Amino acid sequence: MLQFQYIEFLFGLAILLPLVGLFLFVIHWKKKKQQQLGDNRLVTQLTSNYSHQKYQIKIVAVIVCIGLLILSAANLRMPLLPKGSATKGVDVMILLDVSKSMLSEDEKPTRLDKAKELIYQLLDKLQGNRVGLILFAGQAYLQMPLTADVTAAKMFVSNANTDVVNLQGTVISEALTLCNNSLDVREKKYKAAILITDGEDHEEKAVETAKTLTETGVVLHTIGVGTVGGATIKEAGTNDAKRDVNGETIITKLNPDLLEELSKTTGGTYQTLNKTDEVSARLINTLKEMETKPINNSGFVDYQSYYTIFLAIGVALLLVEIFISEKKTI
């Protein structure tokens, strides 16, 4: 069923009524002024090169263009899968590190931005599965419970930043525990977790916690973001390198050894996030090999948008209006 995503923009169509009224007023005003100028035949001769019809076409084109642009902004769309439809898939929990070290720029533009780019690609390819999102630094929070609504998932990912978790650090074990509790512990399969971090853990419980994931049937895949050589962390607002209490510049480094050990513990895979396309493709292929279960879609999996149609026609009309002359064609 077709629907508009941003219904509030449709109220903008109300502006067309005063525009049409203004247009009719101008036409009436022009006729009145023409009559006031004097001899009708003389006025006609003086304005013989002017096309009243072309003027009207230009104004109508502008008004229709405004209406089409408003409809484009409202984003007419159609759900690809209706509510309540059933697909086969798995439950995937994404664990994203949002600690300050993820602002390092050894991956461009930052580690966090590159991680989010990977998640966007994964979400596009995970349609039909249920996906959840956990954000963690010194603490872990369930940002989004499992859902089949890809559009909602992308919105939560876009809002992820280093300010959403007040306590800084990188406590992977707490994120893993929350992940395990957020998945169905009664099932011993159909579950995967994707941990995206630079691996700078500040406590030693991560490997032990990963073993509990194995007991409940969760396969953990780890993605390392950053470089082994490391990089500085820029202070917000000043762009100065972050320093420790002794005044020494802090260098944050990727810890691939920990991430490899975590993935091996649960029978998962480890990859360094170099080329986003290749990493997402390999990870999706791995997930596709998992045994699936029926998944009821409580929302909409994704949408086909049609805003480009209104936008293209509107821009075309605007270009036509620009090139239409108000002079008569001889």
TrEMBL record:
User: PROSITE patterns annotated for this entry?
Assistant: VWFA (PS50234)
Q: Where are the transmembrane segments?
A: 6-27, 59-78, 306-324
Q: Say yes or no: keyword Transmembrane present.
A: yes
The answer to whether UniProt assigns keyword Protein biosynthesis to this entry is no
The signal sequence is none
InterPro entries registered for this protein in UniProt: UPF0353/GerABKA_families, VWF_A, vWFA_dom_sf
Q: Which UniProt keywords apply?
A: Cell membrane, Membrane, Transmembrane, Transmembrane helix
Occurrences of domain VWFA (ranges) = 91-262
Classification via PANTHER family: LEUCINE ZIPPER PROTEIN 4 (PTHR22550:SF5), SPORE GERMINATION PROTEIN (PTHR22550)
Q: What is this protein called?
A: VWA domain-containing protein
